[in-house]
Amino acid sequence: MTTEASNYALRRACIKTLGGLVAAYCGFACLAAAAQMKQWVVPLGGNAYLTSSAAGTPDRVANSGITHWQNEKSIFSIFFRTDRHAALNLSLRLRVPEGESVIRATSAGSVFEKKVTGGDMGNIPLGTVPAKAAGYVRVDLQGLRRTGPVFAEAGDLLVESAVADLELDHVKDPAANRFYWGRRGPSVHLSYTVPAGKVLEYFYNEVTVPKGQDPIGSYFMANGFGEGYFGMQVNGPDERRILFSVWSPFRTNNPKSIPEDQRIQVLAKGRDVRIGEFGNEGSGGQSFYIYPWKAGTTYRFLNRARPDGRGSTIHTAWFFAPEVGKWHLIASFRRPKTGKHLSGLHSFLENFADWNGYQGRMAYYGNQWVRDTEANWHELTKARFTGDDIAQRQYRLDYAGGAKGNAFFMRNGGFFSESVKLGSSFERESSPSKRPLIDLDSLEAAK
């Protein structure tokens, strides 16, 4: 509904209720209230998902919004967050290229059915719904009937409220490809506090993903360091990987453009491990091991950084699955023009499938240890919680972190309402009895 139409409706309601001068006064009061209505435009390209549909449907969400909307079983879900209780007036900006359609919108227990037509983009008033408290509001759209080839092409959800100082959080703009990153959801990190004055050679970590917290697209990165990362992924309904990557010192998003003397060199790889290259986020060498890791089980990660004395660093990673009962070599890479030990130790949690950023994921990161060049182990019990650009801009606030027992945890996606302040510091319980007991010489000798 346009602002003019809203003003007119409010004035008519007042005049119908009262008479004479009182009615005229009320008309002006209603106009004043309408003038205070604040409106937000929630672009569907960054805030909507196809959350339910039939197999093989062409229906999808693109940066422009909902397109190819043909299937009556498709449900598109739109998410935004309010910072308090409020009544919200909702409208949908769409067009019906041909024919006539009937569309259902559902939110907070309210159901609205609208008959829509017209080839030009227009605003279709849906109705008023309550945001009962601070947190996310979900609006579901479903096509019921159509006479044309598609139900509609929808671009934006319009939200209005008269609540003073109400704040709405959502993915606001497509600059820097933020619709894509916003659909993926916020990535979060734990940066570990390491012992001062020690030269660190090994980093040990344990990761446990609770059951039901492992949707496709999840990357539970355990051992991050200044030149790479190592963790486990959910790549498909029947494929999971242990991934170890090291960046080239040559900065580029195209691995083919890396000069020969700055390429990551493969020194060794474990059985059934595949080696390749990666790009689009810097470039370098990549290795992965297809392994059916399971939610609810704790897995161990160990990596080493050792200068070779000729200006390069040897990076090696091992993975321990309790189902197998022994350490498995992932890969050993030589990174030229480096010559340094471990630094910047961290873990992160991300979703790399932009189509399912509405699903949540969580992991516990526990029992972190480092071993210095004098063969001493040190426990890491402190960490700082940070987020990516989408989290920092508060385009998405469905992220959390903390400490529980002898583990840290991170959570993101799923549009849960509670949130943890970025920059928070956590301290987990110490567990000196769980110091890693690993025959490191045997691991190196077996490469």
How is this structure best summarized?
This protein has 447 residues and is mostly beta strands. Helix content is 12%, strand content 48%.
Question: Would you mind describing this structure in some detail?
Answer:
The protein is built from six helices and 30 strands. Helix 1 (3-17) runs antiparallel to helix 2. The protein has helices at 3-17, 20-35, 44-47, 178-184, 389-392, 440-445; strands spanning 38-43, 48-52, 60-62, 65-67, 75-82, 86-95, 100-107, 110-117, 122-131, 135-146, 153-161, 168-169, 188-192, 200-208, 218-224, 228-236, 239-247, 265-269, 273-278, 284-290, 298-307, 313-321, 326-335, 346-351, 361-372, 377-380, 382-387, 399-404, 407-412, 425-427. A hairpin with a 4-residue loop joins strand 25 and strand 26 (377-380). It folds into three domains: 1-36; 38-170, Jelly Rolls; 184-445, Jelly Rolls (Sandwich). It has a nine-stranded antiparallel beta sheet with strand order 19-20-17-16-15-24-13-27-30. Strands 14, 18, 21, 22, 23, 25, 26, 28 and 29 form a nine-stranded antiparallel beta sheet that branches. Strands 2, 5, 7, 8, 10 and 12 form a six-stranded antiparallel beta sheet that branches. It is elongated and about 75 Å long. The chain is mostly beta strands and 447 residues long. 40% of the residues are buried. Residues 1-34 have low confidence and may be disordered.
